[in-house]
Amino acid sequence: PYVTARLTEATDTVTVRVGPRLDAGHGVRGRVLDGASGTPLAGALVELSPRLRVARTAADGTFEFAPVPPGPYRLSVRRVGYLASTRGQLELPAHASAEVRVAMARVDLW
What we know:
There is one protein chain. 0% of the residues lie in helices and 54% in strands. It is built from no helices and nine strands. It has strands at 3-8, 13-20, 28-34, 45-49, 53-56, 62-65, 71-78, 85-92, 96-104.
């Protein structure tokens, strides 16, 4: 069974599901979307701290960090044209994975 937490702020929404191992291993994976349209965002920079692991989202907005040892993490997501999203205290239990959905808010650059 998964535990789902939905964290909402004025700029974005992050949904985190923590549960038993996803597929072949434990880690953090997810998808980054445009908050208004739900369109996947390719090329977003995703950082997992404190181990400072970095990934770019694929064409379908997905990313993955694996394997990831248990412990507390901070997830940050940035993409040109969108407000940065940072969430702390993503707690990854032993032998579990987290599935993250990040809906980002668009900003006007001009």
